[in-house]
Amino acid sequence: xxxxxxxxxxxxxxxxxxxxxxxxxxxxxxxxxxxxxxxxxxxxxxxxxxxxxxxxxxxxxxxxxxxxxxxxxxxxxxxxxxxxxxxxxxxxxxxxxxxxxxxxxxxxxxxxxxxxxxxxxxxxxxxxxxxxxxxxxxxxxxxxxxxxxxxxxxxxxxxxxxxxxxxxxxxxxxxxxxxxxxxxxxxxxxxxxxxxxxxxxxxxxxxxxxxxxxxxxxxxxxxxxxxxxxxxxxxxxxxxxxxxxxxxxxxxxxxxxxxxxxxxxxxxxxxxxxxxxxxxxxxxxxxxxxxxxxxxxxxxxxxxxxxxxxxxxxxxxxxxxxxxxxxxxxxxxxxxxxxxxx
Length: 342
Hints:
Blueprint: H1 7-11, H2 16-31, E1 36-41, E2 46-51, E3 56-62, E4 69-70, E5 74-75, E6 81-88, E7 98-106, E8 111-117, E9 124-129, E10 136-140, E11 145-150, E12 155-161, E13 167-172, E14 178-183, E15 188-193, E16 198-204, E17 209-214, E18 220-225, E19 230-235, E20 240-246, E21 254-256, E22 262-267, E23 272-277, E24 282-288, E25 293-297, E26 304-309, E27 314-319, E28 324-330, E29 335-341
Antiparallel strand pairs: 1-2, 1-29, 2-3, 4-6, 5-6, 6-7, 7-8, 9-10, 10-11, 11-12, 13-14, 14-15, 15-16, 17-18, 18-19, 19-20, 21-22, 22-23, 23-24, 25-26, 26-27, 27-28
């Protein structure tokens, strides 16, 4: 049976076979949710739509923001809407044009349907959708804040101060209560109360830091030292650096597996992903990937990891059972930010 149509009813039509095929296509297109990976290509100023099931880029969406471009992307809980902050024309801490807006993309139709204007140059960078509160958070570096956006109304509803320059990246605890920003130039991590919208603590880490992630149980936060090949492990109970993990090179993007056992760390200098055993707090294995790995996304149920490889313009797909690269997917120039749309 397909929907409410019985096979006998299908046979009453002269073109029954054709109808059957068309109904199958319609049924599966409506009844099965697409598994889509979004990739922000800095070099092309566009967003790739990747069909994860077939492992291929199927479309691109132009940002159409001359002189400036996006770095990162987040997707709403229903997978229908993507948000791409337009950071500017340069990298963090470097001179250039300051971005002031965030694009709103309708994922099913693959079109830009609007934008959210911050009113002045803030270099909006990393967006995080919080399923608990339903809010969208985005780092707004030049204001030293995280801006809160209602994704349904597309209105700015508040800000949270970070107390630091260059609050580039953001991670939010799974209960939606705590936020953590990696403050690149100062080399610190700001701890934020997401409900009361205030800074709880600023944790000194290193001369410079990059990227940030939270463990599956919210007990640990990870950020990569940019002066030494090591990873800082922060205890969220004490808001202090608990230990360090030696890496094969300077670390970058990180992502924890849902089972809480592993942390994947992009190591651009060696073109590898280091797999940290969170029980032993040491690198258990290294996986070779394409040039300049940046960001890592591990969608549920945690069987594969997607790694953007910027210089190669590709996405490495890592099998987390076999611990190898299962395939690579062509994206765009300087593929960077990733988001999963279920």
